[in-house]
Amino acid sequence: MHDPDRPDEAAIRYGRFSYHIDEDRWEWSDQLARLHGYDSADAVVPTSDLLLMHKHPDDRDRVATLIEQVRHAGEPFSSQHRIVDRHGTVIPVIVIADSLHDVDGRRQGTFGFYVTGSPNGDSRSDDLGQGRRATMDVDEMVRRRATIERVKGALMLVYRLDAQQAFDLLVWRSQESNVKLYTLAAAIERRIADIDLSSRARANVDRILLNAHEDVLD
């Protein structure tokens, strides 16, 4: 029986990217490079100009504005647009990104994923029905990301990890258990909700909640 939380890799492709503000540098995963028609990440040096070159002409101006916002602010964003790979294939994509921070919490840039469910879709796939489906996909992906972020926060608190370490731990458990990342995160979140904290632990959190403002007030 088909599991909708385990999409066929041939039907859905994805790739990870990151942008580092200080160095004005983009990084692509091998999967994202291949999505654009390159053999691997080593075969291409992604730049802002290259990103725009691969955008569909009808989407290019809108995405150019978004790229400038990313380069100057590193803000989280989501976008639905089309890319054109090296072979001229038009591919509708959903891009979801979040802020990238260093260990001190300073914003370093942006990271995120390109996701496409239509690797051979035609250039007219932005009709109203497709647009509605894509919007629902974005909403669902944002909801799932929120679940993963909450579980990451719990792991950071319990194990005293930074955000990347907590995410790596979650990914490792996902791979080891052969359970999709969101499905595992949702299961962890349900079990965490059932944990009965000791009165001492709750009292410590109470004290922090009521007095933490003193750390930021002069």
From TrEMBL:
What InterPro entries does the entry give? ANTAR, PAS, PAS-like_dom_sf, PAS_fold_3, WH-like_DNA-bd_sf
ANTAR domain: from which residue to which, for each copy? 128-189
Give a single Pfam family match: ANTAR
Q: Which GO terms describe its molecular function?
A: RNA binding
Q: Which SMART domains match?
A: ANTAR
Supply the name of the protein.
Answer: PAS domain S-box-containing protein
Q: Which organism is it from?
A: Gordonia humi
